[in-house]
Amino acid sequence: MTVTSYKCNNWIPIEGTMKDKISAVLQEIAERYKDPNQVRSWMQKVPPIEVDGKKIERWSDETLASGFTSICLLMGELDRLYPDDGWDIIGHQYLEQIQIFVERQGIHNVSLYSGLAGILLGIYALSRNGTRYQGMLDSLASWYEEIVSHKLTLYRNEWQNGRLQMSQYDTISGLAGIGRITMLFLNRPGMNSIWEKTIELFQIMCGEKKRVVTQYLLGIFLRNVSFKKVKNYNIPKAILI
Length: 241
Hints:
The two termini are 32 Å apart. Helices cover 53% and strands 6% of the residues. The chain is mainly alpha-helical. One of its GO terms (biological process) is peptide modification.
């Protein structure tokens, strides 16, 4: 399978004093993240947020949404911009913290925001295009392939039976986010197979007709919704059959 790379012809690189100002701000922000333990200490003092009556902690070591994993992306980009400034070493300290967490508590899902897919992204960001951490990446990628292959079969069956939930295909915890990580490892036969099966499943989901009372809606499955209510979703007429 060929992955197409798109270039933005309208991108204008920043030069001059503006570039210097941006670099200074970036360096100031980055300085705050040099010590993983200090970052954790700061974040654990932040009060939890409440969503639908449920309290959610603002910090979790292993997550891309609110943990060390997301900071690995910053360290990886800083290492790319300033390869001689030691950001890869600081990034390694973050990976050590993630490894400690995983060894103690395990990984309980494969999602992008809070699971294995996000961790793979964080490691890859620090790997200098896959030339580092090859053993760790290979081990986790093999585990990822096994779990996601099973989930693809499960999700396909649930789609056919009308039970597929948004969390199973969205970016946060579903196939949209999981599939994006797969693209980083298309040189692996297992990942390539997952990518093709994911695209095939999305094509089925977006191309099949699902019954909504007496009308059909292309690519969108709404259960127990009258056609009058469907109109309120502002769906383009071209989608309605």
